Amino acid sequence: MWSTSGCEVITTTDENTIDEIHDLALNIITYVGCSVSLLTQIIAVTVFTCVGLLCSIVAFVLHYFYTSVFVWMLVEGLHLYSKVVQVFGTEKSRLIYYCGFGWGVPLILVTISATADWRGYGTQRSCWLSTKDGTIWAFVGPAVAIIVRGQVVGALSSLKWFGQGPSWSPVVTVSQSASFKNALVQDCRLVTYQA
C-alpha cells in the first residue's frame, strides 16, 4: 500500500488514479516533447526543401560521413587481414595510421569531388549528390571499390586461415590461431563499442 500524504487526487477511474505531481510531470513531458519534435520538423523541412547553400552543405556532410563508413569498413578488413598474416604486432602504432586513413581519405575524396562539381551537391528534390550530373559517382565509385576490395581481403584471409593460401603465406600454428581468435574477439568488441 502506498502513502497518500502529500498527494492530491485530480482524476480517478476504475483503472488508475492521477495525482497532482504526476499530472504536472506528464504535462511538462508532453509540452517539452511536442516542442522539440515540432522544432526539429521545422528544421528538417527547411533544410530539405531549401535548395541553396544550406542544402549543399548538408549534402557535403552526408557525403563525407557515408564515405567514411565505407573507408572504415576497409580499415577493419585490412586490420583483420593483418591479424591473420601477422598475428603478433603492435596495435598502438597502427591506430594512428588507421585513424588518419579512416578520416583523412574520405575528406580528400569529398573535397576533390566538391571542388570539381559543387553544383552537384544538393538537387531540387533532395540534399544529396546529383544523379543527372554524375556527381553520385563520387560516392558510388569508392563505395563499390571498397566493397570489392573487402571481398578480396575476406577471401584471402579465409584462404590463409584455412591454410590454403599462396606459397608465400606463413602457416598459422595452433598458438597463433588462438591468438588470432582472441584478437578477433577484442576487435569485435572494439567495433561494437565504436558503433
Automatic annotation (TrEMBL):
Domain G-protein coupled receptors family 2 profile: 55-153
Gene Ontology CC terms: plasma membrane
Compartments in which it is found: Membrane
Alphabetical GO biological process terms: adenylate cyclase-activating G protein-coupled receptor signaling pathway; cell surface receptor signaling pathway
One Pfam family in the UniProt entry: 7tm_2
Record has Signal as a keyword: no
Keyword set, alphabetical order: Membrane, Transmembrane, Transmembrane helix
GO molecular function, one term: G protein-coupled receptor activity
Coiled coil feature spans: none
PROSITE patterns: G_PROTEIN_RECEP_F2_4 (PS50261)
Keyword Zinc-finger in record: no
Membrane topology: Multi-pass membrane protein
Transmembrane segments: 42-75, 95-116, 136-159
Protein name: G-protein coupled receptors family 2 profile 2 domain-containing protein
